[in-house]
Amino acid sequence: MEHKPLMKVFIVEDELLIRNSLRMMLTKYEQTYGIVYAGEASDGEIALSMMREIKPDILLTDIRMPFMDGLTLAKYAKDLFPWLHVIIISGYQDFPYLQEAISIGVEGYLTKPIHEEELCEVIQRARTNHEKMLIEQTDPSKQEKMIDFEYYKEHFFHKLKDGKYSTNELFDRQKRLNFTFIGKYFTILVARLTPAVKDSSLYHSLITRFSELFHADSQVLLTIFDDFTITGIIAGDRLEESLNKAYYVADILQYELHKYPEMTFLIGIGCQTNRVSELGGLLQKHEEALALTSDQSSQPIIELAVPSTKIPKEITDAFMPLLEPEHLEIPALLSEIEHLRTTVSSVSDPSLNQAILDTIFLWIKQVDEAACDDLQQEYTNDKLETICQTPTLFTLTSRLLLEELTKLKNQQKNPEYQSKTDKIVQQCVDYLKENYADPNLSLQSLADHLNISPAYLSTIFSQNKQVTFIEYLTCIRMEQAKKLLVETNHKIIDITFFVGYNDPNYFSFTFKKRNGLSPKEFRKTAKNDNEDH
């Protein structure tokens, strides 16, 4: 029998009794319909923050809710999760809203009070629609169109990087590309995939999945080349919106690529610009920077440092084998630098020297951004110009910078070393430990507190802690709950509120799911154990 992946269902409903009822019904029918209850929220704002990390397949949401209504939530959620199946919960008085729901792409409706057979029917319909969509994607005619469009995008990106398009020509291609260039900010995204075996079936499988995820999104222009590199431009009305969206796209890519356990990958988030004329040059620089970044980076999503000058391919090819993360052979690198200076004839000496120093600065920035900024303040443009024109100064500077790089790499091995992202994550952990009792604590509220984007926070937190923000917060709350159950005589309903839950039923459900015992059973078992000792 073919194994079908479970579809994750998320509930958003402000009425506690309805939420409890839906949770019980969903868990009852998990095996029957191939679903799994994935979480719940009482309003749209908190829901959206949680859904960013859970990435559900089915959304059950009420229409009328405080802070963010169900239709607004559905619209934002469909933008974030193109695969999402939305089921609206409504009262009879909500029918005027249904026309708008249809335009958003809602595919199921439940009226209050909700009956089991009606819930099962809409869940089954969502499952059937999902499977139908997967079958349609394998249809030969659709596959052919998809591949043709992918080839068109590949051709477009090649010409864009070669500077073959004027601004007006880019505007003319907006409709064909389903992407808006006018009046937008852009963030560059590049990636390198290293599968165990590079074959056409895997390539076409990735094309199909990425097309499903991003084809309808006019803010994402992304393609995968047959050498398993990815190039993308992410648009937004504001700079921070574009950057936030880029991190979200990277997170989705990471989520999908982790389904291939034998594949390694590196995703780089790069520069932002609002100038269409700069896109081609930036894409080229980012691909060069990615080529100079080791696959063995500890984090699959990185902020990509980009050199200020074009780096000749000869440098990339020569230096990469010498950039193992565990050791840095300075004599070998200096020898290679000298060899390049005598053999690369396509670039003048000062320009080649500048490209080599830019490459070293790039490596330093990948290790420690703050240290690189300090060094670049010390090595001003005027000073570097003199250094690059003087062979002895250039050799000395190369050695000093490589020694600094070695020192920074060694510092990273120190258990007490904290990178920029380590410090942000530590701030998060400290904040969560102090504020876990706040029922409104969310990824969004924490991001607002730290003044960073929620997508960026989600990325660095999960990479640093190996669990999502929600999972980490839940762990803190559960540990505190166990402590209170064992060490105090507080009622379970009081402990519910002490650890940040508004709903005792949901608290008990979560506790039992994680610990195998209800809070009452856990307290009784702990008490018996203490008496035995």
TrEMBL record:
Transmembrane as UniProt keyword: no
Residues modified as 4-aspartylphosphate: D62
Source superkingdom: Bacteria
GO molecular function, one term: DNA-binding transcription factor activity
Alphabetical keyword list: DNA-binding, Phosphoprotein, Transcription, Transcription regulation
GO biological process, one term: phosphorelay signal transduction system
PANTHER family: ARAC-FAMILY TRANSCRIPTIONAL REGULATOR, HTH-TYPE TRANSCRIPTIONAL ACTIVATOR RHAS
Protein name: DNA-binding response regulator
